[in-house]
Every structure is written in C-alpha cells, then in structure tokens.
UniProtKB/TrEMBL annotation:
This is MFS transporter. It comes from Prauserella muralis. Coiled coil: none annotated. It is found in: Cell membrane. It is a multi-pass membrane protein. One of its GO terms (cellular component) is plasma membrane. CDD domains: MFS_MdtG_SLC18_like (cd17325). Keywords: Cell membrane, Membrane, Transmembrane, Transmembrane helix, Transport. GO terms for molecular function: transmembrane transporter activity. PROSITE patterns: MFS (PS50850), SUGAR_TRANSPORT_1 (PS00216).
Amino acid sequence: MTGTAKVPRLGLRPNLAQFGLLVAVNALVGGVLGQERSVLPLLAERTFGLTGYTFLLTYVLAFGVTKAATNYVAGTLSDRLGRKPVLLAGWLVAIPVPLLLIWAPSWGWVVAANVLLGVNQGLTWSTTVIMKIDLAGPARRGLAMGLNEAAGYAAVALTAVATGYLAARYGLRPAPFLLGAAYVALGLGLTAVFVRETHEHARLEAGGHTARADGRHDHLHAGLSSREVFVHTSLREPALSAASQAGMVNNLNDGLAMGLFPVLFVGAGLSIADMGVLVALYPAVWGAGQLVTGPLSDRWGRKHLITAGMLTQAAALAVIAVGGSFATWAVAAVVLGAGTAMVYPTLLAVVGDVAHPAWRARAVGVYRLWRDGGFAVGALVSGAVADLWGLRAAVWVVAALTAASGLVVAARLYETHPARRSS
C-alpha cells in the first residue's frame, strides 16, 4: 500500500531501484531469445534434416510475425490494463518454450515454440521499453533506451556463447535450452514479486506536456484513437514513419543473421565453437555499444546517428558477403554490431520524443510492429534469395536494402531531441 500511495516522480535518479530492476528483467528477456540463436539452425540441419534455406527460416518467420503483432497488442493493452499485467502475461507464455525445443519430435514443434517465443518477446520487451520511458521522463530517453537495449542484447550474446559451448560439449539438446528455462523462472518471479506499475508516471508527464516551439505535432493531441496512432506512426508523421521503416530494415538484418549466418560460417569450414563466437560478437557489440550510443543521442541528437548507423550496417554486411575467414568475419560482426547500436536505442528515443504521453505506449507498439516485422521480411527475402542464388547473394541484397533505408532516414527524419529541435 505504501508504494501505491507515493506520488510518482520522473527521472532516472528518483526511480533508480525500479529502473535497475527492469534492466535486469529485460536482460532475462534477451536471454530467453538468445537460447536458440547458435543452436537452432544446426538443429534444423542435423536433427531434422532441413536443407532448403526458406524452410529453415520458417522459425524466424513464425517468430517475427508473432512478435510484430504482439508488439502492437502490448502497446494497446499497456494503456488499457497497465504495464505490469502485460509483462507478467509475457513471462507466463514463455514457460513452454524451452520444453518444446527440448522435446520437439518434428520441426513443426520448433515453429510452434517460436510462435510462443514471439508472443513472449512482444509482451515482455515492449513493456519494459514502455515502463522505462515512463520512468525516465523526457530528458534522458536516449540513456534509458540504451540501458534497456544493452541489457537485452548483451544477454542475447552471452547466452549465444554459452549455448554454443553447451551444444559443442553436451549436444544440441537438452543442455542449451535448460539455460532458457532458468531465465523464464527467474523473470517470472522477479516480475510477480518486485516490479511495480509505471502507468501513473506517464499520466504525470501527460499532465505537464508542452507543445514544441517549432509548431510540429500541434495536431497530435492526447485524444488520438488507436487507428489514428497507427496511421501517424506508420505513414503520416515524418519522424515516426522514417523510424518505423528504419527499424524494419534493421531487424531484417537480424533475421538474416539469426537464420543464415550460422549456416554460412559452418559451411565455410568453421567449427561450431568458432561459429558461436561469431554469432555472439554481433549482438555483444550491439548490446554494449548502446551504453554509449543511447546517451550520445541525448547529447548529439537522433537523426545523424541513425543515418550513419544504417550506412555502417550496410558496409559491414558487404564485408560479410565477400569474407571467408574467421578474422574477416569477426571484424565485420563488430562493425555490424556498432552500426546497429547507433540505430537501435535512438529509434526508440525518436518515438518517445514525438509521441504524446497519452498515446506513447500505442506508438511504441506500432513502431515495434513494423520493426519486428523485419524478422519476417528478412526470413522471406534472405531465404528466397539464398535458395535461388546462394547465401552470399542474400547478404548482398540485405546490404543494399540497408543502405537505401539510411538514405530514406537522411531525407525524411528531422531532429526530434528536445534540446536539439531548434537546429
């Protein structure tokens, strides 16, 4: 009762304990995702005998479509029911995932597990983003998103390394997925007992919300319907729509990395252990780099960091397409992670900058719908191209799409940071 009676305050310092807890919770969310990153492509080939790349990527497609749709639902439900119930529901959905992966007698069971994983990630990751934006207030959104995404993707990377080691030492099943089961149990317990509702923080910010000095968004008032929020975020509002397409292309890259990088690396003669290191390097740099790029976007602004990040990713993918050794691919993975770190938290900060607090959770849901739809698009595009012309051709196509996305950001996105708007 005492906690609910407190008057909410905005900012990282007055909410440090709860913010830190949510960082830890999102690390567990990332760990649940990371449990299959090194192992599942090999499981598809060696246990279930899948050879076509498009068929192999059905699990990425199932995950991406489900997560994208759940992101949208999570934003709407967070406004209607509150943040904590949605977060708790996400953890409950995750309980069967490692069990299905351990005991799957056919590839259909693996796809079903990834449908549930998509629901879990959509509900939990979206909600931790919304809750951190609620707590942080307008001044330090870049830092808040950097910490959130760094925790999640560092956990993805560390878990990818750990499961690669476990798979090499103990086999592809069950050892790697027991780690995922432990993450689910811990995340569910922390959320149920210690996480507190943050919706009141959003209401507090909405009460003191002021219009931009440059006149933008005067028409984007607090009373937008969910349909209007969808249209503004997807198409009409330049910053939100530019961020949505960049987010989609960014995760198109990640869909390629999840599904085809392990096969490319092992097919070139690398060991499973070396492949696990390469697969982990990209999200490791991505995760750690956001500790720098998130607060950097608060200092430098959003637009140029996003543009440079998309072009950096495109260059790294080109190197992966032509590379053939562990050292070359390691350098490219580091550069790819750095480019992604420049983009990922900054795009979320753009949504937080532009969206009114009254409908910000729904805008985050729409943005994440498009962003994580990139997993599905990446699976379809890269799988089809790989089947027709080979793995390296698929990487080249994704590199070209990424460069084009960076040019769209340069042309359409204006500066959204509160302290940088006048420039």
